[in-house]
Amino acid sequence: MKYESTRGKAPLLEFADVLLAGLASDGGLYVPTEFPKFTPADLESFRQKSYSEVATQVLTPLVSPSINSDDLAKMVEESYTTFRHPEVVPVRPLTTERNENLFLAELFWGPTFSFKDVALQLLGRLFEYELSRRDTSVTIVGATSGDTGSAAIEACRERDGINLIMLHPRGRVSEIQRRQMTTVESANIHNVAIDGTFDDCQDLVKAMFADTAFRDSYRLGAVNSINWARVAAQTVYYFTTASKLVGPNEPISFCVPTGNFGNIFAGYIAAQMGLPLDRLIMASNHNDILTRAHLSGVMEIREVQPSTSPAMDIQVSSNFERLLFELSGKDSSWLSEAMREFRTEGFIALPPNILELLRISFEAGAASDQQVAETISELHSTQQDFLDPHTAVGVNVARRFDSHNSPIAVMATAHPAKFETAVADATGLNPPQPEEIAALAGIPERCTELGDDLNAVMEFVSSVSQ
Ligand SMILES: *Cc1c(COP(=O)(O)O)cnc(C)c1O
Q1: Nearest-angstrom CA–CA distance, 454 and 281
Q2: Which of 48-62, 98-112, 170-184 has the largest mean confidence?
Q3: Contact between residue 343 and residue 199 where contact means Cβ atoms under 8 Å apart
Q4: Please, which residues bridge with residue 280 across strands?
Q5: Are 165 and 139 in contact (CB under 8 A)?
Q6: Which of 90, 150, 151, 272 gives 20 to 30 Å between its CA and that of 178?
Q7: Best of 148, 260, 322 to mutate for ligand 1, by most ligand atoms within 8 A of CB?
Q8: Is 118 strand, coil or helix?
Q9: Which atom, in ligand 1's list, is nearest to the CA of 414?
Q10: Rounded to the nearest whole angstrom, what is the distance from the C-alpha of residue 319 to the centroid of ligand 1?
């Protein structure tokens, strides 16, 4: 398996090189040159297999020839035994009351209670494995709107060869999210609070990667969803969820609360790998650039407005570039120009053929904070169920679409206790708190505060890297 850059000017690489590179050297994102295909018989066999067994089978062709199946199986097994649910990603009907074909795929049973753990638990192990094989080390710099940070920190703490610097937008992550990051006492973990938005943090990370000399001298690595390995790991639960709900030839839809477009793009990849999909529904909060682009054909950046679902307070959804690459028939010269224009003008019009293809595979909808609160409140009053606000965006949007007589699985991306303020505002009650979250309150925090200033951040990175 080889990987190519969406911008077409970087060398073709194998999986392990893509893992360590993060962003391609031409500023593009890596995607497989071709997709492995699973047959209906493969899909049927997934029904009898554990999550880790399916993960190993789905990921083996994607990581080959860099990593053999036995080593992969070991890392997969270790990653998913950290989950608090034996099925890893359990699936349940949304309601018993309404006659709906709606299900929740609970992606949040990992160490930090968000879906980011699914990919990052594996990513931390893949990094350590590859670094020790090469006898080298890496400085991972990442940006988080809240959940990636803690999941990356949990995945990388105490791992050999990894130094992790995580930027988050100061005051724009929930208190629990912040404490999950800043209370980790490990010499290789460094938190930085930036005076700015998540997009500002992400731009700082991108700028450090774009500086080749800096990137090479500190051996920068990425765990953001620009890293292909994350997308790859996230394809697995599309297969396992479908295998729990439909037969191998029956289509299913997924509704995915969307920020950086990494989760839902993994669903698109699963479809390319043979999973029969009806539709992928992208659900946004009021930061709805993708929903507007789907409706109007114009992708236009607006200012980020904080919402009750902060992990989706994003305007520039990095992984959308990967989708545009695929939909354009891998037209990297068009895409490079379009991305440049988008960056300089703040908007681009999607060509009609691409818009048409987008609308064939995807539906889209946005939910306001008020609609999210209503959904949380309704589910609580009818069945004492707590939804986190991101999942509630997904449920609110999914209910607007006809199910076409096939199930719609809403990706439940966070545990409600992680966003208890929004849940309590909507229901009048605090959701039950897992003891790991309750315990955070008593632990001292460690964090450095910096302005939205590239030089200051680079200086910090250099000061903590040996
Ligand atoms: C990261 C995150 C999202 C958005 O996922 P993307 O892959 O960025 O689209 C949604 N919900 C929660 C809880 C998250 O942590």
Answers
A1: 36
A2: 48-62
A3: no
A4: 254, 362
A5: yes
A6: 90
A7: 260
A8: helix
A9: 13
A10: 12
Q: What is the DSSP string of 210-239?
A: H-HHHHHHTTEE--STTSHHHHHHHHHHHH
Ligand 1 pocket, residue 113 CB under 6 Å: no
Q: Identify the CA nearest to 223 among candidates 93, 79, 127.
A: 127
∠ CA 186-190-192, rounded to 5°: 150
CB of 418 within 6 A of ligand 1: the answer is no
Residues 26/15, Cβ–Cβ less than 8 Å = no
- Regarding the beta carbon of 410 and ligand 1, being less than 6 Å apart is answered no
Q: What's the DSSP call for residue 311? A: G
> What is the pLDDT confidence band of residue 77, given thresholds at 50, 70 and 90?
very high
At 125-145, the pLDDT tens digits run 999 999 999 999 999 999 997
Task: Kindly list the distances between the CA atom of residue 132 and the CA atoms of 95, 103, 135, 159, in Å, as whole numbers in the listed order.
Answer: 47, 41, 5, 10
Give the nearest ligand 1 atom to 266 CA: 7
The pLDDT tens digits for 15-33 are: 999 999 888 989 899 999 9
Residue 310 CB–ligand 1 contact under 6 Å: no
User: Where exactly are the structural domains of the chain?
Assistant: 91-111+230-432
Is the domain 91-111+230-432 a CATH 3.40.50.1100 member? yes
